[in-house]
Amino acid sequence: MRKRVIKLTLEYDGTGYAGWQIQPGVATVQGALEEALEKILKEPTRVHGAGRTDAGVHAAGQVAHFETAGTVTAEEFERALNALLPADVRVVAAEEAPPGFHARYAARSRTYRYAVTFADSVFTRRHAHYVAGPLDVEPMRETAAALVGKHDFAAFGNLSEDYDTTARDVTELRLEETLGGLEFYVTANAFLYKMVRNVVAALLAVGRGELTSADVKRVLEDKDRAALGPPAPPRGLTLMRVTYSRI
After folding, report:
1. Out of 13, 54, 88, 222, which one is annotated catalytic?
2. How confident is the model at residue 225, as a pLDDT?
3. In whole angstroms, what is the distance from residue 75 CA to residue 7 CA?
4. What is the 3-state secondary structure (H, E, C) of the chain?
5. Global pTM?
6. CA angle at residue 212 from 208 to 217, to 5 degrees?
7. How high is the mean pLDDT of the chain?
8. Is 95 exposed, middle or buried (0-12, 13-18, 19+ CB in 10 A)?
9. N or C end of the chain, less CB within 10 A?
10. Is the fold of 4-97 the same as that of 109-244?
11. Whether 54 is catalytic
């Protein structure tokens, strides 16, 4: 019997997790989902995610899929999973996907938001990075515009064995001023490990006057990861959306 593919759209607060991907001895989002599915299906079931969010990173639109030969409907999976999952993980939607659908490999783009707050409040510490400010936003926007397009982002990716090339196509890198902070929106076909957080850290350095737009362009061209400082903290980062050509 051909197995059915169930596509899940998820949201989670990543504060208490060591990331998406299963790791021994620590709590992960993938692990929580697979544990819940095993209770429903009475057998181990592998869940594949569209993005391997890092420790402390959140999601408002993560996509995952799993295969099953059972007769449980997508709607029943949604209800059952939400009854079993921890309070900080929720299935927003469950639906049947075409045979061969893969949450990661079929994805056309991913969009992340990074939130910065200028107020050090207990109500924002889990989901935004506190920056004392002030920041000069215009050179940050100029620098962001220079990073849009197809580039080799080796300087903005921490070491990983998950990819064969460090070239990525960034279709959007936008800054929005909010009441009391900033939000960065980044869309690309795929991302290197910690790429968004490294980009945000560089833009914040420009806003503080520690780097110029020309400095960042030179780092990009030279592929010099050592020329940039540490990435921005994970708590400000949220995977907002994953797009597909068809479902």
Report:
1. 54
2. 87
3. 11
4. CCCEEEEEEEEECHHHCCCCCCCCCCCCHHHHHHHHHHHHHCCCCCCEECCCCCCCCEEEEEEEEEEECCCCCHHHHHHHHHHHCCCCEEEEEEEEECCCCCCCCCEEEEEEEEEEECCCCCCCCCCCEECCCCCCHHHHHHHHHHHCEEEECHHHCCCCCCCCCCEEEEEEEEEEEECCEEEEEEEECCCCCCHHHHHHHHHHHHHCCCCCHHHHHHHHHHCCHHHCCCCCCHHHEEEEEEEECCC
5. 0.95
6. 135
7. 94
8. middle
9. N
10. yes
11. yes
Instruction: Give the CA angle between residues 8, 61, 137 to the nearest 5°.
Output: 170
Distance of CA 55 to the CA centre of its chain: 11
Q: What is the C-alpha to C-alpha distance for residues 154 and 167, in angstroms, rounded to an integer?
A: 7
Class of domain 109-244: alpha beta
Query: Using one digit for the tens of pLDDT, what is the confidence trace for 7-42?
Result: 999 999 999 999 999 999 999 999 999 999 999 999
Question: Angle at CA 132, nearest 5°, toward 128 and 133?
Answer: 105
Q: Which of 115, 104, 240, 112 is nearest to 180 (CA)?
A: 115
In the chain, where the domains are located: 4-97, 109-244
Token digits of residue 192: 């290197």
Q: What is the pLDDT of residues 154-164, one digit of tens each?
A: 999 876 656 78
The per-residue pLDDT for 164 is 80
